[in-house]
Design goal:
Elements: H1 2-6, H2 9-37, E1 38-49, E2 54-55, E3 62-68, H3 71-75, E4 78-83, E5 96-101, E6 110-115, E7 118-125, E8 128-130, E9 139-140, E10 147-156, H4 165-178
Parallel strand pairs: 1-4
Antiparallel strand pairs: 1-3, 2-7, 4-5, 5-10, 6-7, 6-10, 7-8, 8-9
Helix pairs in contact: 2-4
């Protein structure tokens, strides 16, 4: 700033104009980046238990959120929050996970299940759902149980998958201009 005060009015005008141009270009680059690198995905209001089970209804409410485009996010149909610690160390309480809807899983895959109305994130085994945390019992599956595979858990949502504050402001402004952002391809 000291040098700025030493230049004449004409040079200050040139510097001010250059600075405005630089700021505008940086803002435009951020807007373009946000348009190209984020999409909207559903986040389920309900949690799925990595523990003793949470009630998970068939038709659940979701809200839409922006997520950074990445391979797991592109395959996912929704994001669900983990409740409990039975799937530690892989998944932790409060963590969001990507879920790809599918009615079929292979033995050993981690999925989102509804068993007798309770939602679980567990590893599928032959005749039971396995908890990775040895402090928790596995969940036996009986013929009398009402069991449904909701989908495959693709992995945890990384903290960098969410927009930062500046990106979120731009995405919200894009929403005001164009409606909620682009869905994934």
């Amino acid at each position: 700033m000291e040098g700025y005060r030493k230049v004449d009015t004409r040079d200050r005008m040139i510097l001010d104009s250059t600075l405005r141009t630089m700021v505008t270009l940086k803002e435009e680059a951020l807007w373009d980046y946000c348009r190209k690198n984020f999409f909207v995905i559903d986040h389920n209001y309900q949690t799925a238990a990595a523990g003793s089970g949470t009630i998970l209804e068939e038709d659940t409410e979701t809200y839409q959120m922006y997520i950074r485009i990445n391979p797991k996010a592109k395959k996912a149909d929704e994001i669900v929050a983990v409740s409990g610690s039975s799937m530690e160390p892989m998944f932790h309480h409060g963590q969001d996970v990507y879920v790809e809807h599918t009615p079929d899983l292979n033995i050993g895959e981690i999925g989102l299940f509804i068993v007798n109305g309770a939602g679980y994130i567990k590893e599928l085994q032959d005749g039971y759902l396995h908890s990775l945390n040895p402090e928790y019992d596995d969940i036996p599956l009986h013929e009398s149980d009402t069991t449904r595979i909701v989908g495959r858990v693709l992995g945890a949502v990384d903290k960098d998958d969410y927009p930062n504050d500046d990106e979120l402001k731009v995405l919200q402004e894009l929403d005001r201009e164009n409606g909620l952002g682009a869905k994934k391809d």
